[in-house]
Amino acid sequence: MHPILFQVGQVTFFTYGFTMMAILFLLYFLASRQIDGVEITEKRLGHISFMVVFSIWFGGAFWLLGRHLLGSVTGSGLEGGGGSGLPGLLDPQNLQTAETFPIVALFGFLLILYCRWQHLSFIRVLAFLLPYFILGYGLQRLFGCFSAGCCYGTPTDVMWAVRFPDTLGVGPLPGLAVHPTQLYMAVGALVAYGFMAFSPFRHRGPEAILGMALVGLFGPYFLTTFFRGDVRPETTFYWGLSPRQIISLVGFMIGSGFLVRVWRRGACAEP
Known about the structure:
There is one protein chain. 61% of the residues lie in helices and 5% in strands. The chain is built from eight helices and four strands, in the order ββαααααββααα. It has a two-stranded antiparallel ribbon with strand order 1-2. A two-stranded antiparallel ribbon has the order 3-4. A hairpin with a 2-residue loop joins strand 1 and strand 2 (11-14). Helix 1 runs antiparallel to helix 5, helix 5 (122-148) packs antiparallel against helix 6 (181-198) and helix 6 (181-198) runs antiparallel to helix 7 (206-224). Mean pLDDT is 80; it is low at 76-98.
């Protein structure tokens, strides 16, 4: 609950951005100790790490530019919104407009191109990277979002409610008791990482890793959206669900399908 980590003169180091940089270094260190020398080499890991930083830096900017262009052409009013790239992530004042989707979309696009260029299996590379992405996501929610106060929950009187003293305008009102949705998402991601990193099920191939990642990411996120207080009102579709809830539910179902398929394959292989 300390959005500002420290200040040096006129330079402010925000906890959110500092945490993100520290986590990226940690994930690179952990991944470098697990390179297989075939699909993932030290050189390729360096290339992928650069793509991650590039996507964080420019993902929001490309998303905003695309919305501007589409809105200008169609007159649909899409000029606003989007993200502000890394500066928005470093400065909590802009976190309300930062989006995860354009970062993930840009990185996914770059990774597909890179795998085709290097003649690599995209699924195998993705399976190698996913545990670290899930771990980073959980740590960022735990230390970054919770410190900044963004991604906060709805007002509540449950015994585990939290009160943020000051969030620099990106969180709930100071002193208001809200659901600690940042912790909900962090716990879900870290539990998913535990299964992906240590469960014997992970040895059943890339599909098992992908399934655990989708279930562990979208399942908790879907449930947490019902307690989010920072999400702008959205149009609801079937069963009163918002677009992001529907996407999360679909992702969870796809992941569950992968896990069931892998389990059945293993059950059929047993004598």
